[in-house]
């Protein structure tokens, strides 16, 4: 199956959702141009409160379109940009990628996957009960996070819906994704 970008989103202000755009520009080492979360150091408010000098490992948020189908089947209406992601993909299992995977988006942009998004309680303000759909527990008690992956931009470029997504795995041994 071909993996593609199905939507791109950004918002210059801190809000839960991000409007869809015709394109976004990724800037190496910073994130999405014009997005509130772009920067070398952390921009998520809770992390800034802890230590504003931390490196920003959450420059770009990616979610798989297939999650929206799963949520719709559970009675929720969620679409691209609604959960604050910058890039919505289709045909690639983002959650199973190892740390350090390079995601080539379109002709130029590259995002290095740093970890899993850890959704906060704001998700239940958006739609009551949604947090339980994107964070759960496996039979052994392991936390399962399904709200996408985070990454840093290693090569800039313009990204548009319809662009190809290609994953370049890092050298083994692979390190599984953890929350960032």
From TrEMBL:
| Chain segments annotated as transmembrane | none
What domain of life does the native source organism fall in? Bacteria
Annotated MOSC domain ranges read 18-168
PANTHER family noted in UniProt: METAL-SULFUR CLUSTER BIOSYNTHESIS PROTEINS YUAD-RELATED, MOSC DOMAIN-CONTAINING PROTEIN
* Protein name, as recorded: MOSC domain-containing protein
According to its UniProt entry, this protein's organism is Streptomyces atroolivaceus
Lineage of this protein's species?
Answer: Bacteria, Bacillati, Actinomycetota, Actinomycetes, Kitasatosporales
């Amino acid at each position: 199956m071909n993996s593609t970008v199905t939507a791109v989103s950004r918002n210059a202000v801190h809000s839960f959702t991000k409007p869809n755009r015709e394109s976004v520009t990724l800037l190496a080492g910073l994130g999405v141009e014009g997005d509130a979360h772009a920067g070398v150091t952390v921009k998520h408010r809770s992390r800034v409160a802890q230590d504003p000098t931390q490196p920003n490992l959450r420059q770009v948020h990616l979610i798989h379109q297939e999650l929206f189908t799963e949520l719709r089947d559970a009675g929720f209406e969620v679409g691209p940009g609604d959960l604050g992601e910058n890039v919505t993909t289709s045909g690639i299992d983002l959650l199973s990628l190892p740390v350090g995977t390079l995601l080539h988006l379109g002709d130029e942009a590259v995002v290095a996957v740093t970890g899993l998004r850890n959704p906060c309680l704001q998700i239940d303000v958006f739609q009551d009960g949604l947090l339980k759909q994107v964070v759960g527990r496996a039979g052994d008690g392991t936390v399962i996070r399904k709200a996408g992956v985070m990454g840093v931009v290693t090569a800039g470029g313009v990204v548009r819906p319809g662009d190809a997504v290609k994953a370049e795995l890092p050298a083994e041994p692979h390190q599984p994704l953890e929350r960032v």
